[in-house]
From TrEMBL:
InterPro entries named among the record's database cross-references: DUF1501 (IPR010869), TAT_signal (IPR006311)
Region annotation (Disordered) ranges: 244-275
Stored PROSITE patterns: TAT
Organism name: Microlunatus aurantiacus
Name assigned to this protein: DUF1501 domain-containing protein
Top-level division of the source organism's lineage: Bacteria
Length: 433
């Protein structure tokens, strides 16, 4: 298969604040992985009935690990997420963007969580949140598309045509239901050479709230006079209604019907009401509780390309992230299957140390990764990057993201990391008990 190198029409350095918004659609459209991987192998778009049937046919082992990958598109500012608020260099470099020590949620070692992350702060206190500091890769690229492709393929030195979890699928199964994306398109990380994960769009089930919808409901009623095929059709319609009633709260609030083609809604740019990420994670929790045999879920939140007016925008998005994750974790804690779930939160890069002239920050390099779950060793992992020993104004990565993936493959999915990660075996010490 021909390798397609992904590029972006701008220099790999600090860029102008006048940039078009980065969306999943743009990333997927430009990604060589999406073109050569997921589309080439015919990625599967599934329906609720496929998952319900799979849960009945081959239910998830309550002891099996489940991995949920949360992608923050746009490049989340790590320094205003895990905040070195007591560091004078941070305060000086950021001026109006910097948080004071009394504004952040204390984590120790002079660091604090963004004030919008109260739920994750509670999980930190109960040792269910691991903060991996200074995560990145060698020779960082400040292009959104190239950097995200590197994270999703785990190939930092050359273009790749398969995603890291796609290669895990290639070695594990022929069933696309083993990995499910709640996006409208398959993210490159789930694209293998011979198989890709399945796509389950968040608005995938909906009987119309009209006369037509009511008529369809009536067709689902049984009648003793029905023939065999009529009875089967009625049962199918009734089952569809039952699935909708069960899952609709997780799929979409009754008073909100966003356009699935609207990038801003698809990216979770609005934090009003129940968030897009919250709906995605509600649905993931429902599927896990049903016993769907999926081992990997991909969800996402966008809007983190904060070149201007960053402080308010990012805190709103982090509050949305926090609410969705903490609600998800609380629900998972109530079932055996839920307690086997590990959730990982990452972004394609952090931001530069020094603020720009528009009350924002430009594309940077290393940043924090969050790993949540009952099996995780909570606390700090990795060394906090120096704010004075910089690489051309950027943080130096101290922890290679492939070590994070190796730990997830080995401890959550029960796979040897080397064959998936091109020989990379090193893991994050002590991340899992």
């Amino acid at each position: 298969m021909t390798k397609i190198r992904m590029t972006e029409n701008r220099p790999a350095g600090p860029i102008s604040t006048r940039v078009s918004p980065v969306t999943r659609r743009r990333f997927l459209a430009f990604s060589g992985v999406a073109a050569a991987g997921a589309l080439a192998v015919g990625a599967t778009r599934i329906h609720w009935t496929d998952l319900v049937a799979a849960a009945e046919r081959t239910p998830l082992d309550p002891a099996a690990g489940v991995l949920v990958m949360v992608t923050l598109y746009g490049g989340n500012d790590g320094l205003n997420t895990v905040v070195p608020a007591s560091d004078a260099v941070y305060s000086s470099a950021r001026s109006g963007l910097a948080y004071r020590p009394d504004e952040v949620l204390d984590l120790g070692e002079g660091l604090g969580l963004n004030p919008g992350m109260t739920g994750l702060h509670k999980l930190w206190g109960s040792q269910e949140l691991a903060v991996l500091r200074g995560v990145g890769y060698p020779k960082p690229d400040r292009s959104h598309f190239r950097s995200m492709a590197i994270w999703q393929t785990a190939a930092p030195t050359e273009a790749a045509t398969t995603g890291w979890l796609g290669r895990w699928l290639d070695a594990t199964t022929t069933d696309p239901l083993l990995a499910v994306s709640l996006d409208t398109l398959i993210p490159p990380m789930l694209a293998g050479a011979t198989i890709a994960g399945a796509s389950l769009p968040i608005g995938g089930i909906k009987l119309p709230r009209t006369a037509l919808g009511r008529s369809l409901g009536l067709l689902g009623r049984s009648d003793p006079a029905d023939g065999v095929w009529q009875a089967r059709a009625a049962t199918s319609i009734a089952d569809l209604g039952a699935v909708q009633r069960t899952l609709e709260p997780a799929v979409r609030p009754p008073d909100q019907t966003p356009d699935p083609d609207e990038d801003e809604n698809a990216q979770g740019a609005s934090a009003g009401g129940q968030s897009e990420l919250g709906r995605q994670l509600d649905l993931v929790a429902s599927l896990i509780e049903l016993g769907v045999p999926t081992r990997v879920y991909s969800v996402s939140l966008g809007g983190f390309d904060t070149h201007s007016d960053e402080r308010g925008t990012q805190q709103r998005l982090l509050t949305e992230l926090d609410r969705a994750l903490s609600t998800f974790q609380a629900r998972l804690a109530t079932t055996d299957r839920g307690r086997q779930v590990v959730t990982t939160v990452y972004s394609e890069f952090g931001r530069r140390v020094t603020a720009n002239a528009s009350d924002g920050t430009d594309h940077g390099t290393a940043g924090p990764v969050f790993v949540l779950g009952r099996g995780v060793t909570g606390g700090f992992h990795g060394t906090e990057p120096s704010l004075t020993d910089l690489d051309d104004g950027d943080l130096r990565a101290g922890l290679d993201f492939r070590s994070v993936y190796a730990s997830l493959l080995g401890s959550v999915l029960g796979a040897e990391p080397g064959p998936v990660l091109d020989g990379w075996e090193q893991r994050v010490d002590g991340l899992f008990a």
